[in-house]
Amino acid sequence: MPKYYDEKEEDGRACSGVREDFKACLMQHDCVVKEGKMPSECLKEGHCRALQTSFFECKRSMIDTRSRFRGRKGY
């Protein structure tokens, strides 16, 4: 779920909202917190898959020439 903060500093990079939520999902997941694994290992196990897909789609839409008309995906 997207997180919106009043005091959040602006990040001018593309897909920054999805990136932040994806990072938070990984760092707060039981795989990292309780089991002490690396976030990359948890990704291979399939955790936070929906946000990973959203982040990929947002980054891919930056290269897609059709995005000039449709706009970037993500938030």
From TrEMBL:
What are the alphabetically sorted keywords of the record? Answer: Disulfide bond
Q: Does the keyword Cell membrane apply?
A: no
Show the coiled coil region(s): none
Q: Which Pfam families match?
A: Pet191_N
Q: Which InterPro entries match?
A: Cyt_c_oxidase_assmbl_Pet191
Top-level lineage group: Eukaryota
Q: Which family is annotated?
A: Belongs to the PET191 family.
Function according to Swiss-Prot or TrEMBL: Involved in an early step of the mitochondrial complex IV assembly process.
Q: What is this protein called?
A: Cytochrome c oxidase assembly factor 5
